[in-house]
């Protein structure tokens, strides 16, 4: 509720700055300053392109997670789902090379399959948790295990590799660029814009907010709670499939270690961005910044040898907590009083 | 854990009882093989080679039955050992422990039940339990890789190192590697953990590439990491500048070595096929008069274009 009040106040308050909305951006700027101070190679075009391209996977998935979390749900299965969809795409495309040849058609069928699987998997998560009246945590914990096992099974415990001819055809989807901007970054931006419009400018978005704030009240207000919640999981599934479509051409492989812990990174990106874990309020641009921040931390740690490798996780954890603390907390309001 | 161990002990005593009454009735020699499930590439190869060895041995020796079980964690593996003794009534155990510490006592129980025990790769925390120990050689892998890089670079140049998951295996490899470079003019620009993972290998290498304008060689120490490194180097269009040394013996990398890829001139073996070595040695105990007790440490063989064919298993998942 706090954040709603705050947003309203800012809207009418003229010059007062909404720290909550700006918080993640400020933290990101601070990180960029830190990165540049540590190593000037940080600001090179190549390195920045690397950061944004890498952030695209987690970022796209996190845009979907913003919907799920805003509506009061949680999806733990996204990392395994990404691994499973990658695996399925590779198997099907490798099979099709024999009949269709290594061409655009094969890639398109792979992409179509990815979308069907993503939407389907999302619908399963949504329907089982709403119709089955099982907590989303349990449902998606279950599907997380299922998808992870399926990809291990498909790969026979090893690694599925995309046909080498196919890699040549599919490669531009990850390595290509338009006017110097890498394709994954463009896709990431497009997904974020679409997510922003859907969450902030449509009745569907407002229903997500309402359900996340108070599910009972939303139900009494004649909102089809189950339908909206299921749709948020479908959107999440679609986002996972889009992320997978640009992930597969990167290394052309999938194994049981693909996408491990992506679910936690995605959820972390969403929360760093200012969305509330208990639901009721979501912010897409915050999520985008959160995803870029997470990637940037890893990148900065790789650019310096000042910090022991063994402490990487500690530094990451600390920065995440500080970033969220800066934009939450009552400390600011107390001061302003 | 205490109660669990007690329970396990009871089960093993029970197993011992069963063993002594049924051992004479059993006409086949049973060899139990307990290994981690195929949750990553190397373990996938392990499972595949165990299954291949099972087929081959059962076809050669009709009186031997090999039972392979795989576990998803240390406590599940302890349960497996219990079942192998009490339900399957095995005569010998080949075990690749998930982790050394938690499995030391369960394996000891098997030994105390009078079984022949072969331990693979990860040693137990107490000495004298196993009859045979079979393992790859981590320090040797580091040393051999270091020597190759010294020789190729004529004792001078700049290299980067991608480490695995912070564990003893990783430390042993890296320490031996660094020692080997001692006294040369080779400078290690930096070492970062890539966790034996392709995606991490790709990202860490990207960052090394933006940080260092000149890199002569990359020690990836693992073939999964090496595959990520290869893509990063290709993307940066710096393939002519450096070469990459991996490790393990993954078929994709062996294939590149076989095809004479300049980026990956060699690979150093740390083969999951060592499980087959262990099973074969254990079978020898029952099929020949050769003494087999002792330690069998595999060499860290260097795979070059000339011998790559011998180590290429296109059907293996790893």
TrEMBL record, chain A:
Topology with respect to the bilayer: Multi-pass membrane protein
> Localized where?
Cell membrane
- Source organism of this protein record: Thalassospira profundimaris
Q: Keyword Cytoplasm on this protein?
A: no
Classify the main location. membrane
**InterPro entries on file:** ABC_transp_permease
Transcription recorded as keyword: no
How is this protein named in the record? Answer: ABC transporter permease
What are the protein's GO molecular function terms?
transmembrane transporter activity
* Residues that span the membrane, as ranges: 21-39, 51-74, 81-101, 107-127, 134-154, 174-199, 230-248, 260-277, 284-301, 307-326
The UniProt keyword set, sorted, is:
Cell membrane, Membrane, Transmembrane, Transmembrane helix
What do the Gene Ontology cellular component annotations say? plasma membrane
Highest taxon above the source species: Bacteria
TrEMBL record, chain B:
InterPro entries cross-referenced by the UniProt entry: Peripla_BP_I, SBP_2_dom
| Entry annotated with the keyword S-adenosyl-L-methionine | no
User: Where is the protein situated, by its record's location annotation?
Assistant: Cell envelope
Q: Which GO terms describe its molecular function?
A: carbohydrate binding
Q: Where is the Periplasmic binding protein domain?
A: 31-261
The answer to whether UniProt assigns keyword Protein transport to this entry is: no
Tell me the Pfam families matching this sequence.
Peripla_BP_4 (PF13407)
Q: Taxonomically, which superkingdom?
A: Bacteria
Signal peptide residue numbers: 1-25
Q: Keyword annotations for this protein?
A: Signal
| GO cellular component terms attached to this protein's record | cell envelope
* UniProt similarity note: Belongs to the bacterial solute-binding protein 2 family.
Q: What name has this protein been given in UniProt?
A: ABC transporter substrate-binding protein
Q: Which organism is it from?
A: Thalassospira profundimaris
């Amino acid at each position: 509720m706090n954040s709603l009040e705050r947003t309203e106040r800012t809207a009418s308050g003229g010059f007062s700055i909404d720290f909550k909305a700006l918080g993640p951006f400020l933290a990101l700027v601070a990180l960029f300053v830190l990165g540049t101070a540590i190593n000037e190679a940080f600001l090179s075009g190549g390195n920045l392109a690397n950061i944004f391209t890498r952030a695209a996977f987690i970022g796209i998935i996190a845009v979907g997670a913003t919907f799920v979390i805003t509506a009061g749900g949680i999806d733990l299965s996204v990392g395994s789902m990404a691994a499973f969809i990658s695996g399925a795409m590779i198997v099907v495309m490798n099979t099709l090379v024999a009949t269709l040849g290594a061409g655009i058609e094969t890639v398109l069928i792979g992409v179509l399959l990815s979308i069907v699987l993503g939407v389907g998997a999302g619908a399963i998560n949504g329907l089982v948790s709403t119709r089955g009246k099982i907590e989303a945590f349990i449902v998606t914990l279950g599907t997380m295990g299922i998808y992870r096992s399926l990809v291990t099974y498909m790969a026979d415990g090893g690694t599925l590799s995309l046909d080498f001819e196919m890699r040549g055809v599919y490669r531009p989807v990850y390595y290509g660029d338009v006017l110097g901007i890498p394709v994954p970054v463009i896709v990431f931006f497009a997904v974020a814009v679409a997510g922003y419009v859907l969450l902030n400018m449509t009745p569907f978005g407002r229903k997500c907010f309402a359900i996340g704030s108070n599910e009972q009240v939303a139900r009494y207000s004649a909102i089809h709670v189950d339908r909206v919640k299921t749709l948020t999981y479908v959107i999440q599934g679609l986002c996972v499939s889009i992320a997978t479509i640009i992930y597969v051409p990167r290394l052309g492989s999938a194994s049981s270690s693909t996408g491990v812990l992506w679910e936690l990174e995605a959820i972390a990106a969403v929360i760093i961005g200012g969305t509330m874990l208990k639901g009721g309020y979501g912010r897409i641009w915050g999520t985008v910044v959160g995803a870029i921040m997470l990637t940037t931390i890893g990148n900065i740690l790789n650019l310096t040898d000042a910090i022991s490798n063994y402490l990487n996780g500690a530094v990451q954890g600390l920065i995440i907590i500080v970033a969220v603390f800066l934009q939450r907390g009552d400390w600011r309001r107390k001061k302003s009083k | 854990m205490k109660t669990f161990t007690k329970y396990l002990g009871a089960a093993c005593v029970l197993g011992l009882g069963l063993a002594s009454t049924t051992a004479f009735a059993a006409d086949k020699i049973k060899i139990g093989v307990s290994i981690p499930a195929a949750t990553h590439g190397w373990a996938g190869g392990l499972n595949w080679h165990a299954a291949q060895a099972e087929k081959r041995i059962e076809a050669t020796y009709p009186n031997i039955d090999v039972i392979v079980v795989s576990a998803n964690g240390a406590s599940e593996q302890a349960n497996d050992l219990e079942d192998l003794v009490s339900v399957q009534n095995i005569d010998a155990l080949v075990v690749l422990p998930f982790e050394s510490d938690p499995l030391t006592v369960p394996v000891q129980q098997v030994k105390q039940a009078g079984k022949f025990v072969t331990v693979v790769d990860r040693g137990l925390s107490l000495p004298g339990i196993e009859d045979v120990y079979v393992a790859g050689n981590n320090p040797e892998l580091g040393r051999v890789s270091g020597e190759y890089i010294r020789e190729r670079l004529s004792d001078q140049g700049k290299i980067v190192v991608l480490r695995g998951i912070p564990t003893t295996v990783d430390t042993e490899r890296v320490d031996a590697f660094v020692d080997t470079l001692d006294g040369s003019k080779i400078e290690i620009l930096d070492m970062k953990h890539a966790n034996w993972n392709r995606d991490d290998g790709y990202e860490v290498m990207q960052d090394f590439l933006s940080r260092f304008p000149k890199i002569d060689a990359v020690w990836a120490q693992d073939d999964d990491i090496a595959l990520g490194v290869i893509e990063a180097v290709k993307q940066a269009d710096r393939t002519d500048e450096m070469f990459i040394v991996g490790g393990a013996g993954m078929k994709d990398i062996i294939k590149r070595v076989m095809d004479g890829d300049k980026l990956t001139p060699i690979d150093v073996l740390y083969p999951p096929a060592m499980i087959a070595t262990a099973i074969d040695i254990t079978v020898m105990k029952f099929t020949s008069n050769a003494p087999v007790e002792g330690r069998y440490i595999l060499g860290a063989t260097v795979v070059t274009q000339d011998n790559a064919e011998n180590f290429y298993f296109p059907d293996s998942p790893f």
